[in-house]
Design a protein that fits this description.
The complex is a heterodimer of chains A (about 250) and B (about 650). Chain A is of the alpha/beta class. Chain A is built from 8 helices and 10 strands. Chain A has one domain: Rossmann fold. The longest helix of chain A is centred in the C-terminal third of the chain and has 17 residues. Chain A is globular, with a radius of gyration of 18 Å. The C terminus of chain A is likely disordered. By secondary structure, chain B is of the alpha+beta class. Among the domains of chain B are: about 180 residues, no CATH class; about 190 residues, no CATH class. In chain B, helix 10 runs antiparallel to helix 12, helix 13 runs parallel beside helix 21 and helix 21 packs antiparallel against helix 22. The chains are: A alpha/beta (about 250), B alpha+beta (about 650). The interface between A and B is large, with 39 and 35 residues.
Chain lengths: ~250, ~650
């Protein structure tokens, strides 16, 4: 199988001189297409920084990030924007749906940025809305939706361009436990049925247990790695808790 | 300590304060220029010619104070709203309200002080430009005008007073408001929910506007023919109301209707720009309507001012076609005779030519009795012989008139011209003369009279001379008209007491008088237009900047979704540009029919094809000023918005 994402010895420093702080120190890992990976760790461990450098929102201080063999760290700004638009999908903790746009407008926004024809946009909208049970909500505004529905709309927006990689930053952070579980099941469905490759940052052990692989970060380095294999989600959950206990982190237990 | 903190805050928040600063500085600059113009010795001397001019300057000064007060209070309220969360945070952290009030007063005080300095500096230049413009309109040589201490003091005092008032209002707000209200998020601007309904309203109001404009146009033409201004005023008011309604409804409809086009929405970040625009236009529909109405009013005023200048330039040749025309009234014992007057004229300029003519009257009222109210006015039938009339006409380039047993009624009053004289005859020296024509077209040779009749020479044989007259051409066409008028004026006793009277019409004095009025009107309209435009733009800028936080969040999402800098800039430009254009588009479009209407008015006045150089220059200047101010505000607003909102690549 071809490697989809390859992170090679990525470091990220903030500040300069005596005030320099290391957010990432030589992080390396790979992801295969169709993988659902979670990144876990305590606050300040570098989870969000790692996601941001992969998302090309932040540039690494050194190292390389190869997506489908292309080193995104080397791309100029214009190409980076096109890369984010065409190859990546984003799901954020605060949904980041635009309040002034309807759900349908929010979902098709990435396709509009790609300047796709109207007919294609509408067909994809219908398909993704049906798969995420959002058809009834399309003409509503985000403020008229529940938290779970909003996050599903954000998922639909991430999925509509059929990106190579979906990046999710604490996607359940603003949801209650019922909606969080619903969202994770959506992620599993996206991964299983649509073949989406997902990289999710979370500090919630329960949410992490839905992933097929967990990377634990500590002080900007990969400290441990767990593969689900044939284990049940419950077993995976306990394994995560055990690892977090050794790690001494701040995992949420639900 | 607070002064230091305030200075640091101002430096850090210079982007937020920039529009406030520019607006206050511009308002002060304009007020400074007008106050100096108003108190300038040179201008004061010129304004003594016309009392209208003095009162116009006073009105403009008062208006400038009012507008500055409005702009200052709005800008202060905007600054307060922009920073209320920050102040709420200070209070939460334990600062007292007095601390916050002192900080805010120090910050705005510092800004005001700098704006006063910059405004005065800009005002020094604007004053000289206005003085140059005024000299050009007055057709007098330009000289650098001295600044007036009174003007400077008045500007400083009024600006400081207005600033104090707006600051006190802000401080009162800071005293009363609760911390939770300060920390509360501003409600997001929601786009229009019923664009189709508003589209129907827009269509109705636009149709109404067009209909009212057509009726106003017809009413205007009728007014210029019949001198009936009452219905015209009502229609003009109705036009302004319709302009307001059309803008109000269009603001709520346009962006919403554009959002219904899937094709348009599918292009880049158009959906975001249109939704942002729709929200802004819906929330500010009333404001846009009001600004558009003010702008139409300002543009109409400018047009009226230009036409006044064209009218005054062109009417001089008609009202006083020779350098001096004397129409002596020998019945007045104190009156100055032609010979005495001529001696006075020669003191100011050698006389190039003199053309004598006479107005005859036998005291009959056979013809003027057809005019309503002739008895109250004491009118009698006054005649001028045809040969003298033709000689006067030839002297100023008109074709001579021929009459066959006919008489010609000459008047400057349209109402008299419209009286039906057909079939009215007059018998003079045994010969009957029938009506040939009534006209307001010819120059006003016998300027003292409301009307007179031109008849063949034989008709006035043996008729007594009522007014001996003469038309003079001077070698110096621009004598000292004020001094000349003063010497040619005599006093006479009337039932109401003594009054000044002069039997000599001096063309140069006419010119000075009409130029003074037209100049004041043009300067006034230029000022009012610029102030209205500034106010409109300042408010649009502040409105745009007040939603930057919301825009920043929106554009951050766009950036993450892959919108590059160009795409973001384009979306922001569309959103800001359309919002800025909303109250300006229709007023600017209306200048085309307005120009046409005024051209027709000139045709009615028989001034077709004539143009005033000064009026044209002023029109260009006004356009440049308006576009300059528009460009400045738009550029600043867009640049500030870009700096705040556009997400750039990571470093």
């Amino acid at each position: 199988m071809n490697t989809l994402l390859e992170i090679k010895n990525v470091t990220k420093y903030y500040g300069s001189g005596d005030a320099v702080s290391k957010a990432l120190c030589g992080v390396s890992f790979t992801m295969e297409p169709g993988e659902f990976t979670a990144v876990m760790g305590a606050s300040g461990s570098g989870k969000s920084t790692l996601l941001n450098v992969i998302a090309t929102i932040d540039r690494p201080s050194s190292g390389s990030i190869l997506l489908e063999g292309q080193d995104v760290a080397e791309l100029p700004e214009q190409a980076l924007a096109a890369f984010r638009r065409d190859r990546l999908g984003f799901i954020f903790q605060e949904y980041n749906l635009l309040d002034t746009l309807t759900v349908a407008e929010n979902i098709v926004l990435p396709l509009n940025l790609q300047k796709r024809p109207v007919r294609e946009t509408q067909e994809k909208l219908r398909a993704v809305a049906a798969s995420l049970e959002l058809t009834e909500q399309l003409s509503k505004f985000p403020r008229q939706l529940s938290g779970g529905q909003r996050q599903r709309a954000a998922c639909a927006r991430a999925l509509i361009t059929q990106p190579a990689l979906i990046l999710a930053d604490e996607p359940t952070g603003a949801l209650d436990s019922a909606n969080s579980k619903g969202l994770m099941q959506t992620f599993v469905r996206m991964n299983r049925d649509l073949g989406s490759t997902i990289l999710m940052v979370t500090h919630d052990a329960m949410m992490g247990s839905y992933a097929s692989r967990i990377l634990f970060l500590k002080d900007g380095q990969i400290w441990n790695e767990l593969y689900r294999g044939d284990r049940s989600r419950q077993d995976m959950y306990h394994e995560i808790l055990n690892t977090m206990a050794v790690l001494g982190g701040e995992a949420d237990v639900r | 300590m607070f002064a230091k903190l305030a200075l640091r805050n101002v430096r850090r928040q210079i982007r937020n304060y920039l529009i406030y600063f520019v607006t206050v500085a511009l308002s002060i600059a304009m007020m400074f220029a007008v106050n100096n113009l108003s108190y300038s010795d040179r201008i004061r001397h010129l304004t003594e010619i016309s009392s209208d001019m003095r009162s116009m300057f006073n009105m403009v000064t008062a208006l400038s104070c009012l507008v500055t007060a409005l702009v200052l209070s709005y800008a202060a309220a905007f600054m307060l709203r922009l920073r209320k969360k920050e102040f709420g945070m200070y209070l939460t952290l334990g600062m007292t309200r007095r601390n916050i009030q002192t900080l805010f007063a120090c910050e705005t005080g510092l800004l005001f002080f700098f704006a006063l300095l910059v405004g005065m500096g800009a005002g020094l230049v604007i004053f000289q430009l206005l003085a140059a413009l005024f000299a050009s309109i007055m057709e007098i040589p330009f000289a650098i005008s001295a600044y007036s201490v009174q003007g400077i003091l008045l500007t400083t005092a009024v600006s400081a007073g207005l600033f104090l008032l707006s600051t006190l209002a802000s401080l009162r707000y800071l005293k009363k408001i609760t911390i939770s209200e300060l920390l509360k998020e501003e409600a997001a601007e929601k786009s229009e929910r019923h664009p189709v309904l508003w589209c129907v309203f827009s269509a109705v109001t636009l149709a109404g506007l067009i209909a009212v404009l057509i009726v106003t146009y017809r009413s205007m033409m009728a007014a210029f023919h019949n001198q009936d201004g009452l219905s015209l005023l009502a229609w003009l008011a109705a036009s302004l109301v319709m302009v307001f309604l059309a803008h109000f409804t269009l603001s709520r409809a346009v962006a919403g209707m554009l959002l219904r086009s899937k094709r348009l929405k599918s292009r880049g970040a158009n959906t975001v720009a249109l939704r942002g625009l729709s929200g802004k236009m819906t929330m500010n529909a009333l404001l846009i309507g009001a600004l558009a109405t003010l702008l139409v009013f300002a543009i109409a005023m400018s047009n009226v001012a230009f036409s006044e200048k064209v009218y005054s330039d062109c009417s001089i040749a008609k009202d006083c076609p020779y350098d001096v025309i004397a129409v002596i009234n020998p019945a007045e014992t104190q009156s100055i005779s032609l010979e005495e007057g001529e001696k006075i004229l020669e003191k100011y300029s050698p006389i190039a030519s003199r053309m004598d003519f006479q107005i005859y009257s036998a005291g009959e009222t056979a013809l003027c009795s057809n005019i309503l109210g002739y008895e109250e006015m004491g009118w009698t039938d006054n005649y001028m012989p045809l040969s003298q009339f033709n000689a006067l006409l030839r002297g100023c380039g008109y074709a001579p008139v021929s009459l066959e047993k006919e008489y010609l009624l000459i008047t400057t009053v349209q109402g008299i011209c419209d009286v039906d004289f057909s079939g009215k005859t007059v018998t003079l020296n045994g010969e009957t003369y029938s009506w040939a024509e009534s006209s307001t077209f010819y120059p006003d040779f016998a300027w003292r009279l409301w009307m007179y009749f031109v008849v063949p020479d034989e008709a006035v044989a043996n008729m007594p001379v009522l007014h001996p007259c003469a038309a003079y051409t001077l070698e110096d066409h621009r004598p000292d008209a004020e001094a000349m008028l003063s010497e040619l004026t005599y006093y006479r006793e009337t039932e109401d007491g003594p009054e000044d009277r002069c039997d000599f019409a001096i063309q140069e004095y006419y010119r000075l008088y009409s130029n003074a009025n037209a100049g004041t009107l043009i300067i006034g309209s230029l000022y009012v237009s610029t102030v209205f435009v500034c106010m409109a733009l300042a408010i649009l800028s502040l409105k745009t900047l007040s939603t930057l936080e919301e825009d920043r969040r929106r554009f951050a999402v766009l950036y993450r979704l892959g919108a590059d800098e160009t795409m973001q800039r384009t979306a922001l430009l569309k959103q800001t540009g359309a919002f800025f254009l909303a109250p300006f588009a229709l007023p600017f479009l209306l200048t085309v029919p307005m120009g046409r209407i005024f051209r027709e008015v000139y045709e009615i006045w028989d001034f077709a094809g004539l143009q005033s150089q000064a009026a044209m220059e002023t029109a260009i200047l006004i356009s440049l000023v308006v576009f300059g101010v528009y460009g400045l505000y738009f550029f600043l607003t867009y640049r500030i918005a870009c700096c705040h909102v556009i997400c750039r690549g990571a470093s």
